[in-house]
Specification:
Blueprint lengths: L1 H44 L4 H7 L1 E4 L13 H7 L4 E3 L4 H14 L7 E4 L12 H5 L4 H16 L5 E2 L23 H16 L14 E5 L18 H8 L1 H8 L4 E4 L3 E2 L2 E2 L4 H11 L5 E3 L7 H5 L5 H11 L4 E2 L3 H11 L5 H17 L12 H7 L3 H14 L1 E5 L12 E4 L25 H8 L5 E4 L12 H10 L2 E7 L20 H9 L5 E6 L7 H6 L2 E4 L7 H9 L64 E3 L3 E2 L3 E2 L5 E9 L5 E11 L10 E10 L4 E8 L6 E2 L5 E2 L3 E8 L5 E8 L1
Parallel strand pairs: 1-2, 1-10, 2-3, 3-4, 5-6, 6-9, 12-13, 12-14, 14-15, 15-16, 19-27
Antiparallel strand pairs: 7-8, 11-16, 17-20, 18-20, 20-23, 21-22, 21-26, 24-25, 26-27
The structure holds 1-deoxynojirimycin (NOJ).
The site of 1-deoxynojirimycin has 6 residues, from loops.
Length: 749
């Protein structure tokens, strides 16, 4: 026994020595590669004039029109002169090859161009909008979506995407929530990393010709504009910023993202593009970011409007000194930087550092070895809109849909039912693509109505538009009601125009626009089962729709294959498994509403009838909570079993729960783990997501799900702003959404 024990100690020792040697070897190999790369970068930098250096620090827009894509006249010449090193919105191999040829065959130093583009949720094969995709809680599916977007982009000349957008937001008025992953920092971080892996490749192999450079955006806290108005002021405590808004940017950087975009907003009075604390101290210092920092569109110039610079030249100084490497479209560096260096206002060393970062990325992408590696026409023909990409888009779209209501099991529909399909959105292809549809178009895709008819063999479907998405015109109501009367069931597709989400699309109302809900109310009087299919890019106030609809399916903008995905879910070919990643309020007055709120000193559960934190005209709780989504089957949760009731420093706990599919359909459930720190040096949220697992369970089957809890998962910025844990009592919850949970407790020692 003793010798066996000794033997295992010796083995362990050898193993550790071996591991250290391997680690040492791989570290020194890594630093040798880094050194080689730095040498290459310096060898180019050493040849550059100041003009050429500044040329690498600018990014100009092509007109982005595929049929006759051309860059603004004059700029071709700037590429030739080495004054423009990077282009956005140019795509197709033919167009990018033409521009690249000028850079590498006609400019003095032959430095290849970067081609950036907003490939947010697909390039040509369009996936569900990012908010929709996040509702799948399926990291593998999300990574695949980004991978395919990267493959199609890379095959079309694009080597840099302005994604992932990782801005946390609790502001449904803000149209850009459609581009993010919702309200939660934990889930948002996992998704941010998955998207980076998808774009840059699992191993961050940027040299691969089918990976592209990711750009994390918008740094920082762009998702919290006051009153939800895009570009508006952001003001939050440092602690909220660090604990809630920062984690997804960090996760994306840790996953290897090699570029980041500044945001339009100010934070604590300083616009991000001129914010040295953000870009240099925090990002490059504390977070160790090694990639390049690009501005958002003309955001250097906008610092004049912000009121921190008198003119563009002064704004440029703020940006370059804050750590901005590349000026998107603003022409500020182009116009003023050279003179500022000559006048001694900017140290050329700062310029060299910025250019190094740009060149480094170009080397990593392999552009110096083969500047045309993204311009392979055969590859473009073969890979863009490939059948397997469409198949994946279809799978991801199905997973993104969230069933919000299903009274009396109206869904799934049955083949053979006579169904009235109502609503302008039902027949729209364009809206399915959502905002930021990149190169996606409505050719070669079907609307929801087309797919619904195909599924039903073109029988038993009666369509009436009823009304438009917007406007007050009710002249189509009669035909819609007549259609409803002839049918067994009604499917009404309602929501927002796709352009009502995305950039510069903030709203002051969360209601379904126009007269769509009025028509729904009229249809309700027919006493037929009504299914509402929603297409929208933000949480809406669905209080009225909830009164009239028997079932509600949230479909977001589900992409190129969205019509087929929605149809299949409605007919039960796929059992819905999506869960909300943003809280749906009962009305706008509750906004901002999110599950990780604080308890307050006067929580609403107190018995005092009046003086507590509540509304006098509405409950506090949302209509649909974070993490919520139904299935055609039911899942039952056992009580939680903890491995111990105490968690010690460096120790771990396991929490187990058995989930049973007690219904008739096979289905997937997202099992969610939350904790609450009961007493802290500062107040703590009533719940925080700390883990989740999506499981597939056959009807009647059960599975034990195990979560591991370690102290580092419980760390936060404490009273003195140090980051760490605090001992004390915790609650632990597990359930299928943030409201309906089993609970237990443990102590952190
Ligand atoms: C402005 C948007 O804020 C940003 O997300 C986008 O990447 C750039 N324009 C480039 O299109």
């Amino acid at each position: 026994m003793f010798s066996l024990h000794r033997k295992s100690i010796v083995m362990k020792k050898y193993f550790l020595i071996l591991l250290s040697i391997i680690l040492l070897f791989s570290c020194s190999k890594k630093s040798a590669i880094d050194q080689q790369l730095n040498n290459k970068v310096d060898s180019v930098l050493g040849l550059m004039t100041l003009d050429e250096k500044i040329g690498q620090m600018v990014l100009y827009a092509s007109d982005g029109d595929i049929t006759g894509s051309s860059i603004k006249s004059g700029l071709l010449d700037e590429i030739r002169k080495g004054n423009c090193g990077n282009i956005l919105n140019a795509y197709t191999t033919a167009h990018t090859r033409k521009l690249q040829k000028i850079a590498v065959e006609e400019s003095r130093l032959k430095i290849p161009l970067l081609f950036g583009y907003d490939v947010i949720h697909g390039f040509k094969t369009i996936f569900p909008i990012s908010l929709g995709e996040s509702c799948s809680w399926d990291l593998e599916a999300i990574e695949k979506g980004a991978r395919i977007a990267a493959i199609e982009s890379a095959a079309s000349g694009v080597n840099w995407t302005f994604a992932p957008m990782v801005d946390i937001s609790v502001e449904p008025r803000w149209g850009r929530v459609s581009e993010g992953a919702g309200e939660d920092p934990f889930l948002g971080s996992k998704i941010a990393a998955a998207r980076v892996r998808g774009f840059q490749g699992k191993e961050n192999d940027l040299a691969d010709s089918l990976t592209i450079l990711a750009c994390v955006k918008h740094f920082a806290a762009y998702g919290a504009p006051q009153a939800g108005r895009d570009y508006n002021t952001v003001d939050m405590s440092q602690r909220v910023f660090l604990d809630t808004y920062l984690p997804p940017y960090k996760a994306a950087i840790d996953a290897g993202a090699m570029s980041i975009m500044t945001s339009f907003n100010e934070l604590d009075g300083v616009p991000s593009t001129g914010n040295k604390y953000l870009l240099t101290d925090l990002l490059r210092g504390e977070m160790g970011f090694k990639g390049l920092v690009v501005t958002d569109y003309t955001s250097i110039n906008e610092m004049v409007n912000h009121g921190v610079a008198e003119n563009d030249a002064e704004a440029g100084l703020l940006a370059v000194k804050a750590g901005v490497d590349m000026d998107m479209q603003g022409e500020v560096y182009f116009k003023y930087l050279k003179k500022q260096v000559k006048d001694g206002l900017v140290d050329e060393k700062l310029i060299d550092e910025a250019v190094r970062r740009v060149l480094r990325v170009k080397f990593l992408l392999g552009l110096f070895d083969d500047p045309y590696k993204y311009c392979n026409e055969d590859q473009e023909k073969r890979l863009v809109f490939a059948p397997e990409h469409l198949e994946t888009a279809f799978e991801v779209a199905k997973k993104s849909l969230v069933l919000l209501k299903n009274e009396n099991q109206v869904l799934p529909l049955k083949k053979g039912d006579k169904i009235a399909v109502i609503g302008a959105l039902a027949a729209s292809k364009r809206d399915l693509l959502g905002s930021w549809k990149a190169y996606g178009d409505t050719m070669n895709m079907n609307s929801f109505l087309d797919e619904f008819k195909i599924y039903n063999g073109n029988t038993n479907v009666i369509y009436a538009e009823g009304c438009k998405k917007m406007g007050e015109n009710i002249s189509g109501f009669g035909a819609a009601i007549a259609a409803g009367r002839r049918a067994d069931k009604i499917v009404m597709v309602i929501g927002e125009d796709a352009e009502w989400s995305g950039e510069a699309a903030s709203r002051t109302s969360l209601q379904v626009p126009g007269v769509q809900t009025e028509l729904l109310e009229k249809l309700k009087t027919l006493n037929k089962p009504i299914v509402v299919v929603l297409m929208n890019g933000r949480p809406l106030d669905l209080t009225r729709e909830n009164q009239f609809a028997d079932a509600i399916l949230e479909t977001w903008y589900a992409g190129t294959m969205g019509g087929k995905a929605i149809t299949q879910v409605l007919f039960g070919e796929y059992n819905p498994s999506g869960k909300l990643t943003m809280t749906f309020p009962r009305n706008l007055g509750q906004v901002p509403i999110f599950y990780y709120q604080k308890n307050t000193g006067r929580p609403s559960y107190l018995s005092n009838p009046k003086y507590k934190s509540r509304y006098i005209d509405c409950p506090n709780d949302p209509l649909f909570p974070f993490g919520f989504g139904l299935s055609y089957t039911n899942f039952e949760y056992s009580e939680i079993t903890l491995s111990a009731t105490e968690l010690v420093e460096k120790g771990e706990l396991t929490a187990k729960v058995t989930v049973k599919n007690s219904g008739k359909y096979d289905g997937e459930e997202v099992v969610q783990l939350y904790v609450r720190d009961l007493v802290g040096s500062i107040t703590r949220p009533v719940k925080e997501l700390k883990g989740f697992e999506k499981v597939l369970l056959k009807a009647g089957n059960s599975k034990e799900i195990t979560f591991k809890i370690t102290p580092d998962m419980l760390a936060f910025h404490r009273l003195d702003m140090s980051f760490g844990t605090e001992q004390g009592d915790y609650k632990l919850y597990i359930g299928g959404n943030s409201r309906d949970v089993k609970q237990t407790s443990f102590k952190l020692k």
